Amino acid sequence: MKQLGKFPEKHSDMILTAILIGLLMVLISFSFDYYYELNDDVLIKDILSGEYTGTPEGHNIQLLWPLSALVSLFYRMARPIPWYGLFLCGIQYLCIGMLLHRTLTYAQSKKGKICISGLVTGLVLVLYLEHLVFVHYSVTAALMAATAAYLFYTLPVGLERKVFFRKSMVSVTLIFLAVCLRPNMMLLLLPFVGVTGFIRWSREKEPLCRENMIRFCSVIAAILFVVAGSFLADKIAYSSTEWSRFETLFANRTELYDFQVIPSYEEHQAFYREIGLEQSQQQLLVNYNYGLDENITEITIGQVAEYAKTMKDARIKERIRTALWEYSHRFFQETDYPWNAVILILYVVMFFTILLRQDGRFLGNLWVAVWRLGLLFFVRTVLWMYILINGRCPVRISHSLYLMELCILFAMLMMEYTRKLRDKNFVILLTGCVLLFAVILMIPYRLQHVQKRVEKQEAVNVYGDSIENYCAARTDRFYYLDVYSTIIDGDSFADKMFVNVDNTYVNHDLLGGWSCNSPLYRKKQAVMGLQGPFFDLIGSQDTRCYVIAKLETDINWLKDFYRDKGIPVLLREVDQIDQYYGVYKVEAQQY
């Protein structure tokens, strides 16, 4: 009984963490539904669950194979359960819980624990609420990387070798999961991980002694092992000829659509003719419906991407100037608020907190502040410039960079708070001011922001639901969707994670997109006995295949494409969906 009575006191930090995370989950769950942020996340879920091909697939294309195969295995065991959504949401709340618990362990009084609890919870609601409601695998991977960095930096100094390595394995595991979930994001954030480890190493009393060298090098080796092992396992899993060709296509497609601009046919006609592309085929690239033409291969897309890249590289000086201007102004842009404001505050607070150390001289403290914050700022500048020069910085990337930097700064700040400061009341005053600022001024604003986004997404999803319902009522047919007809005012359809979960095969697909021409794309068509959109749409005997596009969309590009292939076609509207989409039958006039 005595041991039972001591349990709450001994594990008070863990109990408080569990209560706060539980309250946070209840608050958000009762206020909002959970959404997959983009159609990318929806397609990942569809592939893993079997909704795409009829069978849960371990080859997911976006996720590295170890994690993808594991999640698909859960779907095979209990297919109706939304395992992928549970994984994403679960890992986010787990990471927030680990951040909160580690922070609480450094608060030595009840008042301190209350302040810390309020501060962390307030920052989550202010900064991360949007990503808890609209979940994206890139941001989730960034949260795991940020948590790994925070946990590693806040490890006590002077730990025995085995204890240090064992406690570091939590960070290594999170990095492993982040690499498997979103490899490109984790690779982007690795410099942040490196600078975190280096500064943490410098905090040891004798950083260059043999014992410390072994301890930190062993963790570095573990990280390199899990990263390399993940990529090696993925490489083996996708080693077949068919998958290797598609991975080349996927890389070239990413380069072309994410980082380049497709050259116009009129101005670059000589180039297109040199690689054998007619204007109607180039139009398929422009409207992202290149899956209609099997002659547009990974080589073709690679040639266009490389040509577009040479045009872009010719403007490198202009791009650097533009990137520098944007980088300097993002500190004050409303689009990045409140992330930019919080980061600036943390840099200033961290600088003066180091200067307030009692156990050091002013010049020594100044040097520590300058080199640590300067190194972190240098790394963040390099990463931001890399993103901005390439001309691709959506919110899921910018917020991930901010999130990583914030957790590193917060970890550094917490470790400074554990030292002796000249005025302990300064810590309480600072924490209270930041907490009040976050809760009173910023939380209502962010709640309103997320609510407006939910309303906007619901308005967009009405159109997606209309297509889903139409196709589901006609399971003997198959529908190819014009890609940009699935974009409404710049937003794509986004499924709710835990509402109306079906996970059964759906009889429609895009004419393009990142899964186009993959082995899974072919497998999906084979389920319905189809050969591919080019033949399916004009089959003289098989009339099951149709094209769905917005009524306002000019789809004469279909006529132009088949005409250049020597097959005149007639586009006949056979139905409408909610007076917004047209359903078209492509009828060959002659062969």
What does this structure look like?
With 591 residues, this protein is α/β, with parallel strands linked by helices. Among the domains are: 240-314, no CATH class; 457-588, no CATH class. It has helices spanning 2-10, 12-31, 39-49, 65-77, 83-104, 110-133, 137-153, 161-181, 183-202, 210-237, 241-259, 269-274, 279-286, 298-313, 316-329, 339-355, 362-389, 395-417, 424-472, 519-527, 533-538, 556-564, and strands at residues 35-36, 134-135, 478-481, 487-488, 491-492, 508-510, 545-550, 569-577, 581-588. The chain has a five-stranded mixed β-sheet. α2 packs across α5 (83-104). The model has no long low-confidence stretch (mean pLDDT 88).
Keywords:
single chain; 591 residues; alpha/beta; 6% strand
Strand line-up in the sheet with most strands: 6-3-7-9-8
On the 0 to 100 scale, the average pLDDT is 88
Tally of individual helices:
22
Largest sheet: 5 strands, mixed
In total, the number of strands is 9
Portion of residues in beta strands equals 5-15%
Write down the overall geometry.
globular
Low-pLDDT residue intervals, each spanning 5 or more residues: none
Report the helical percentage.
55-70%
Radius of gyration: 27 Å
Structural class: alpha/beta
Separation, N- and C-terminal Cα atoms: 87 Å
